[in-house]
Every structure is written in C-alpha cells, then in structure tokens.
Amino acid sequence: MTDPKPKQKKPRGVARLLDGKCIACGARCQSSCPVNCIEMTDTGEPIVEADKCIGCQKCIKICPSTALEMFFTVEEQKILAELAALALPVEEEIDPEAAVLARKLAEYRGVWVFVEQTEGEPAKVSWELLGVGAELAEKLGVELSAMVIGENVEHLCLEAFAHGATRVYLMDAPVYYHYRTEAYVEASCHLIEKYKPEVILMGATGMGRDLAGAIATRVGTGLTADCTGLSIDEKRNLMQTRPAFGGNIMATIMCDKYRPQMSTVRPNVMPMPERREGAVGTIIRDTFTVPEDSVLTKVIEIIRDSHSKGTVDITGAEFIVSGGRGMMAPENFALLQELADELGGVVGASRSAVDAGWMPGDRQVGQTGKTVRPKIYIACGISGAIQHLVGMQDSDMVIAINRDGSAPIFEVATYGIVGDLFQVVPAITAKIRSLKQAKH
Ligand SMILES: Cc1cc2nc3c(=O)[nH]c(=O)nc-3n(C[C@H](O)[C@H](O)[C@H](O)COP(=O)(O)OP(=O)(O)OC[C@H]3O[C@@H](n4cnc5c(N)ncnc54)[C@H](O)[C@@H]3O)c2cc1C
Ligand code: SF4
Ligand code: SF4
Fold it and tell me: Is 119 in the same domain as 169?
C-alpha cells in the first residue's frame, strides 16, 4: 500500500499595484484589508507589505479601477498549473460577510433628488440634478424620483415631472413652510427609512449642504460634497468625482457599504435637462408631520440681503469676461467691464484677483468661488489653475487671452489668443462696437 499523496495547498499570492491605474479613490483598498498590510502614499496610492499579505483578495474586489492584481511567484504559478491540470473541482469560497452586505444593499433601490424651494420658489439646481439623476437611474434600471417638502408645493411635483422625474414623494404641511433643519431632517429620514432609495442628490447650496449632512449623520451613511461628476460602476456603486488635495487631483469617492449613497452638487455643474412639457408621473403623498412644538427653530421674518442688491450674480450670466493677476491693477478691470457691457455680460475674476482686492468675492470663479456655465467665457490674464478651471470649463465657449502660449488655460479654450491683453481686449471691444454700429 502506498501513502496517499500529500494534498497540495493552493497558493494565495500577494496583492500588488498596477502602474498608473490607481485613481486615488480614498483608500478603499486600505480600509478593506483585514491584516492592515496596506499603507497609503501622500498621493493616495497604496503600498502593499507583501510579507504580511495573506492573499485574501479583498482589496482587489473593492478597487473601483481594477488597479490591484494578485501576484504569484514562478514556483506558485507552477503549483497552480499542476492543480489546474488535475482538473479538480474547486469549491468557490463564499464570503459570508460579503453575502450579508449584498443582501443589505439590495434592499435599497431608486435615485432621488431633493427639490429645494424657498416659499414655493424652486432652486434651479434641483432640475439640473434631475438631469444627471435620469442618467444614473437609467444605468441602474430604476425609477427617478423627486422629494418635495414644503407647504402648498404641489406645483413643484409637476415641474419635477417636466424635468425628468417619474415619481414624487410629497410632504405638504404648514410645519414645512420654512426650511428648518429639524423638521426637514425628520421628514426626509422618514421617507428614506420607508422607501429606501439607493442614491440621493442635493444641491450644494446653503440649504442642501445643511440638510444633506444632517441626513447622512442620522441614517449612518456617507456623503460626498461638491461633486463634479457622477456615474455608476458595474457593482451599482455611485462613483462620485470631486476635486481633492486642494483641487490638484480629481478623486472618485464611493460609499459601497452603506445606503443611500449621498452627494451634493453645486449649481451650474450639471447641464439643465430638456423640459418635457406636460409630462406626468406618480405623486406619493406622505402625511407624516413633525409637531411644531418639537421644532426649536422659529422663522420670525425673512430679511432679504440688502447688501446683495447691487451685487452681480455671475452664475446666471450668458457672457462672462474674467480677469486674473495679469490685469495688474484694479482700475484695469474697467477694460473688461467695457467689453462685458458690449456683450451684455458681467465681469468675473480669478481668486488671485479677488485676493488682491481688485474684485469682490462674489465675482470669483472656481473651486472656492462660483461655478459658471455661460455661452461665452473670456479669460483675460488667467493662467488656468485647476481650481479655476473646475469653475468654468463647462462653458459653451472659452476664449483665452494670455501672453504665455503655454498657459494651461489654452487646454480648455475653444479659441486662444496669445498676446498682451491690454492690446487684445480693447481691440475686441472696438470691433464689436463697430460691428454693432454697422448693423444700425
Ligand atoms: C484650495 C484652493 C482653492 C482655490 N480656489 C480657487 C478658485 O476658486 N478660483 C481661482 O481662480 N483660483 C483658486 N485657487 C488659486 C489657484 O490655484 C491659482 O492660484 C489662481 O487661479 C491663479 O490666478 P490667476 O490665473 O489670475 O494668476 P496667475 O496664475 O498668476 O496667472 C496670471 C496669468 O496672467 C498672464 N498675464 C500676465 N500679464 C499679462 C498680459 N499683459 N496679457 C496677457 N496675459 C498676461 C500670465 O501669463 C499668467 O498666465 C485656489 C487654490 C487653492 C489651493
Ligand atoms: S490581498 Fe488581502 S491581505 Fe493582501 S493586501 Fe489585499 S486585502 Fe490585504
Ligand atoms: S483606486 Fe484601487 S488601488 Fe487606488 S486607492 Fe482606490 S482601491 Fe486602492
């Protein structure tokens, strides 16, 4: 009798990073590792300590950009080949933890957009979010819904249908007339717990930021603020892209273990969807209300900001002529104002110009300023730092005027003029004027 052949152990390998594939998603690989053998670099990429790795493949499964692979030594590859040649049925390892998670996540379905309103007047960003929400819902094969909370706000349901929603969750009661965090959080969480949406989008406005943070804390999920891109991966996760590390890189953030996945998006970042006049859908009225006595905040009076009366709203402008550090002095902005007046537009600025005190803060375009989407954006003496670009690169047309031909602004420009803005800008203004005069 011969001794039975000792069973060959299947090599597990070690994880390793593939060059150039990591998108610095926020250390998801590191947080998934059960033996803490992943360190992150300053740029957000993982370093795997090979001698500690137990080859569990959790980091590989969680990575949204397939940036990690299993590495096997030549010896291990031989053993794997031998095992494969024996063609023994390999029992699939079922990870019970993953199975429980998958079941939990599957309870959540649908994309929701919070419709922001003040005294019945909707915020435009809500409709922009229905546009991107429709794309996400289509990818996920689910319904796009709007969440409308207020008093006498039924007209907003019809508007939501016109902008792409097919269902509206409506809470209409006096206690919701004014936005107050306590009442709106109670109402929203009631709906979320009852209907379990997988994605919730809100405007990154004062109200949206306040409400989204409070809801995420209450329901125990993640929230990504100020997203500039949203899409769905093959595991139904929402890929939320936003500037990170001071805007120097774009990070894609995911919330793959919790639902709903929540994002805020600033006004003008997403395009406005086409209006579907007369579109209809289902309104689900929920009579849940919050007792007025339980809401500590009382709105006594709404005082409009008189300071903002004379200010310019650059976010709604169709033509923006922006100046940067290349303008050299505040009085030189008069040149831009002249051009803006000819076009019927407004003057914007880079942060450097605002920091120098040449232009007021409400004119700043960019990551820490406003996001704009005009028909024409004319950048004068602006280098095109990424923090500026994220605020204007979705303009229909960008015209850049800079004396440095290698300035990054030219990378996003439809038309680039390499030259001295003090000659170019007055020449454009004069040309427009003469064209207008010739017309009359
Ligand atoms: C966290 C963070 C947030 C930020 N947020 C913002 C933001 O919201 N918005 C923003 O704009 N920046 C922001 N910044 C700053 C950003 O990084 C840049 O420093 C800033 O945008 C540069 O402004 P600029 O292009 O006017 O100045 P510069 O980078 O100094 O560029 C000046 C340009 O003018 C050109 N120039 C000079 N003279 C002339 C001339 N006579 N004719 C033609 N061209 C000329 C030069 O060639 C140069 O390209 C942020 C930075 C950080 C770290
Ligand atoms: S394979 Fe497992 S043990 Fe190895 S680095 Fe990835 S998560 Fe950690
Ligand atoms: S992209 Fe992949 S490798 Fe890079 S940090 Fe995220 S999970 Fe880790």
Answer: yes
Ligand 1 midpoint to CA 124 (Å): 29
The answer to whether position 146 is within a domain reads: yes
* Together in a domain, 86 and 115: no
Q: Give nearest CA residue, ligand 1 atom 37.
A: 326
Domain end, chosen from 51, 66, 93, is at 93
391 and 426, same domain (yes or no)? yes
Q: Which of 347, 358, 388, 393 to mutate to test the pocket of ligand 1 (most atoms within 8 A of CB)?
A: 388
How many A from CA of 386 to the centre of ligand 1? 9
Which atom of ligand 2 is closest in space to residue 70's alpha carbon?
1
Check whether residue 262 and residue 353 sit in a common domain: no
Ligand nearest to the CA of 71: 2
pLDDT of residue 158: 97
- 278 plus 158 within the same structural domain: yes
Has residue 167 got a pLDDT over 80?
Answer: yes
- CA of 187 relative to ligand 3 center, distance in Å: 36
Alpha-carbon distance 190 to 184, whole Å?
10
Whether the pLDDT of residue 7 is over 50: the answer is yes
pLDDT per residue as tens digits for the range 326-382: 999 999 999 999 999 999 999 999 999 999 999 999 999 999 999 999 999 999 999
Handedness of CA 61, 62, 67, 68 (dihedral sign): negative
Other C-beta atoms within 10 Å of 346: how many? 23
Q: What is the DSSP letter of 396?
A: S
Q: How confident is the model at residue 1 (pLDDT cuts 50, 70, 90)?
A: very low
Whether residues 159 and 191 fall in one domain:
yes
**What is the C-alpha to C-alpha distance for residues 41 and 25, in angstroms, rounded to an integer?**
13
Q: What percent of the chain has pLDDT above 70?
A: 94
| Structural domains in the chain (count) | 3
Residue 160: phi, psi to the nearest 5?
Answer: -65, -40
Q: How far is the CA of 246 from the centre of ligand 2 (A)?
A: 30
- Ligand nearest to the CA of residue 244, numbered in listed order: 1
Q: Which atom of ligand 3 is nearest to the CA of 66?
A: 2
Burial class (CB in 10 A: 0-12, 13-18, 19+), 45: middle
* Mean pLDDT across 200-229: 96
Residue whose Cα lies nearest atom 23 of ligand 1: it is 352
Helix (H) or strand (E) holding 83: helix 74-86
pLDDT tens column, 120-151: 999 999 999 999 999 999 999 999 999 999 99
pTM over the 0.90 mark: no
Ligand 3 pocket check for 187: Cβ under 6 Å: no
Which range of residues forms the domain containing residue 67? 10-93
